[in-house]
Amino acid sequence: MLEPAYRVASDSFDYALNDNVLHVAVIDAMGHGLDAASMATIAIGAYRHARRVFVSLAEKYAFMDDAISRQFGPDHFVTAQLMHLNITTVTGLTS
Questions:
Q1: How far is CA 94 from CA 39, 86, 91, in A?
Q2: Residue 17: per-residue pLDDT
Q3: DSSP string, 53-85
Q4: Rounded alpha-carbon distances, angstroms, from residue 70 to 16, 22, 81
Q5: What's the gap between Cα 84 and its chain centre?
Q6: pLDDT value for 48
Q7: 30: which residues sit within 8 A by CB, 6+ positions away?
Q8: What's the confidence (pLDDT) of residue 47?
Q9: How far is CA 85 from CA 3, 21, 59, 70, in A?
Q10: In the beta sheet, which residues pair with residue 26?
Q11: In this structure, what DSSP letter does residue 92 have?
Q12: Contacts of 49 (CB under 8 A, 6+ apart)
């Protein structure tokens, strides 16, 4: 369920299915307001670019970190959880 946002925040996510690999990113930029939303947008853009050039997870983190520090300086940061999931090797879950 999606709810309307009454204040600009810094939470963001992205996902893509490329062949048999599901790529997922959950991002939270420091602070609130327009600066935080801008940081989250830059982090997502950097993540998408890194994903499209097929680099490792560690390299994706470094690429995002570099984009944030170049744009906002070393005092700003974004936390992120990234995942690659090969959907052909995942077994089904039952409930």
A1: 39, 19, 10
A2: 93
A3: TT--HHHHHHHHHHHHHHHH-TT--EEEEEEEE
A4: 26, 29, 21
A5: 12
A6: 95
A7: 10, 36, 39, 76, 77, 78
A8: 95
A9: 28, 5, 17, 30
A10: 13, 81
A11: P
A12: 63
Per-residue pLDDT tens for 4-39? 656 667 889 999 998 899 999 999 999 888 888 899
At residue 56's C-alpha, the angle toward residues 48 and 23, to 5°, is 50
Q: Is the pLDDT of residue 59 over 90?
A: yes
Of 28, 22, 58, 54, nearest in space to 41 by CA: 28
Mean pLDDT of 43-64: 93
Side-chain half-sphere exposure of 36, counting CA atoms within 13 A: 14
User: Does 33 or 83 have the greater pLDDT score?
Assistant: 83
Residue 12, token pair as written in the block: 């963001």
pLDDT over 70 percentage in the chain: 85
- Say if residues 31 and 50 touch (Cβ distance below 8 Å): no
